Amino acid sequence: MTSSFDWSAGYPSQRLPVFGRNIVATSHPLAAQAGLRMLAAGGNAVDAAIAAAAAMTIVEPCSNGLGSDAFAILWDGKKLHGLNASGCAPQAWTPGYFRGKYGEDARTPPKRGWDSVTVPGAVSAWMALSEKFGKLPFADLMAPAIEIAERGYAVPVVVRQKWAAAAALPELTDQPGFAQAFLPHARAPQVGELFRFHEAARTLKLIAQTKGEAFYRGEVAQAIEKHARAHGGALRAADLAAYRPEWVEPLAKRYAGHTLHEIPPNGQGIAALIALGILSNFDLQGLKADSTEVQHLQVEAMKLAFADTYRYVSDPASMEHTPAQMLDDAYLASRARLIDRNKAQDFGAGNPVKGGTIYLTAVDERGMMISFIQSNYMGFGSGVVVPGYGVSLQNRGHGFSLRPTSPNVVAPGKKPFHTIIPAFLTKNGLPQMSFGVMGGNMQPQGHLQTLVRMLDFRQEPQAACDAPRWRFNHGLSINVEATMPTSTREGLRALGHQVESFQDSYQDFGAGQFIWRLGDPAVEGYVAASDPRRDGLAAAF
Q1: Please, what's the largest Cα pairwise distance for the chain?
Q2: Each residue's pLDDT tens digit, 296-312
């Protein structure tokens, strides 16, 4: 599988593609090094990913924490596996529970606080992955994160920007435990300032000693319930004890001689598959990657994909239409026919009746590849931090609806609509690339844009990663990076897109990690890219 990429094509960047037989790519260098330590100790890619994920809870707290959710797709050397470790609603949650507390006009659970917290699933993902695929003792995988939390680390540039922005939001800083954990000296840390997180180190040690059991059925679970009770939250130790992650079969869609794999609903990965399925009805050959026409077609395909995703995706048990119906080729061809090459449009959902996040990836020379993502959602998530334990909790409950007619209406034990999505690419049934792009609803948009660049226009992973991106918001509104060619921006405006151009290094245009298999992992190895929009690193040996 040697590549036919054009290695001379590129965009302004501080990074070059990285080659090696064992690689870990993350949005923080210390986490990448934590993963490499496991590989050097005889571990495999899964061991590396778990160690990196644990470290990420410490070094990028503005994106994830010990109270995050997670998903993974991995190639074990023979087969593809999917893992859904997103949490479910506490047993007390019903529409009546929220309307009784927040009024009859409430449409969703709150954005912050205990009533936005579902059962956190990330630690369970580490446990499940280690038990099924890991080689090293589980406690060894926690060691780098514990060391970083205890000794501290110098806060990097992009993390500090988002940390400081969060410190200006009373909706976060007023949450119980937030200031104590994340505002040392009553402010966010400065760039290069040392940050230690001793309370999280305590929890990581308990997780290491018990292979995670303390988090769901022990001391940490009891501390979580105690804090919830003290602040009016409904989450209980029994909710944690009952939780289990799910092994799932990834969804798939062919595009340009390859197959993209995504985790099935309750996540939005299906949006990337729908968009590619729609785009496959257009011939991009002979066009230029950065042309107005190519960007316009992608934007319109993405709009159509989101229209169906936001209308139909929820916990699988409550979906009106199956993923197979939503991905039916004939249905997607009918959706493609709605696109006008000469005009931007605002699309509604079709009827397919017939038919704040961190991302990391790791590979090893034996051929194992893992695509892993975990998130607190909306930066620091709920803002709630369990005192004495450093458990920063997600706010995924905000993704539920309180409308009885919505497929995503809240219910006890139900999973909410999720934004975080790992991705995986195969060719002729063999692994080709482990990748993902962080950043809310930018994630499927990032999957679409980078894949089109690599598969249709032969741009190597780092160039596809560096290239200017757009982001669809709603209606006719899109954001574009300031580095997008002026002619393209103006061309999109002429088609009716409402274009706002600006630069953001964290959320608005996503940040990805990519590892592409070059051939035999033990011989040719892989090439990796790490997004310059964050502080990250692709590290190899």
Answers
A1: 63
A2: 999 999 999 999 999 99
Place of tokens 């924490």: 65
- Helix 198-210 and helix 45-59: axis angle, to 10°? 150
Please list the alpha-helical segments (H only) found in 285-367: 292-312, 323-326, 329-336
pLDDT in tens, 195-211: 999 999 999 999 999 99
What H or E segment, with its residue span, contains residue 162? helix 157-167
Of the listed ranges 132-136, 360-364, 366-370, 509-513, the one predicted with least confidence: 509-513
Distance between alpha carbon 246 and the CA centroid of its chain, in Å?
17
Q: Would you give the distance in Å from CA 340 to the centre of its chain? A: 31
Domains identified in the chain and CATH numbers: 30-68+85-245+382-399 (no CATH), 248-357+420-540 (3.60.20.40)
Instruction: Give the residue numbers annotated as catalytic, written as ranges.
Output: 357
Beta strands per DSSP E along 60-192: 69-75, 80-85, 153-154
**Tell me, what's the pLDDT at 350?**
77
Alpha-carbon distance of 405 to 449, in angstroms, equals 34
Residues 491-495 have a mean pLDDT of 98
What's phi and psi for 100, nearest 5 deg?
Answer: -65, -30
Burial per residue of 475-509, b for 16 or more beta-carbon CB atoms within 10 angstroms, e otherwise: ebebbbbeebeeebbebbeebebebeeeebbbbbb
DSSP string, 403-472: -TTSTTB--TTPPPPB----EEEEETTEEEEEEEEESTTHHHHHHHHHHIIIIIH-B-HHHHHHS--EEE
Residue 213 burial (C-beta neighbours within 10 Å; 0-12, 13-18, 19+): middle
- 208-209-210-214 Cα dihedral, nearest 10 degrees: -80
Q: Phi and psi dihedrals of 10, rounded to 5?
A: -165, 175
Q: Say how far apart CA 83 and CA 66 lie, in whole Å.
A: 18
> Which of 210, 198, 19 lies closest to 127 in space, CA to CA?
210
d(CA 81, CA 93): 31
CB contact at 8 A, 519 and 1: yes
Using the 8-state DSSP alphabet, how is residue 321 labeled?
A: S
Mean pLDDT of the chain: 94
Q: Taking residues 179-187, report their average pLDDT.
A: 96
Amino acid at 117: V
Q: What is the distance between the alpha carbons of residues 522 and 526, in angstroms, rounded to a whole number?
A: 9
Helix axes 292-312 and 329-336, enclosed angle (nearest 10): 130
Residues forming a β-bridge with 511: 438
> Which residues have a Cβ under 8 Å from the Cβ of 4 and sit 6 or more positions away?
458
Residue with tokens 């009827």: 351
- Choice among 9-23, 143-157, 253-267, 431-445 with the minimum mean pLDDT: 9-23
Q: What are phi and psi of 14, to 5 degrees?
A: -100, 10
Q: Is the dihedral of CA 170, 176, 177, 180 positive or negative?
A: positive
CA distance 524 to 539: 16
Q: What angle do CA 484, 487, 489 make, to 5 degrees?
A: 55
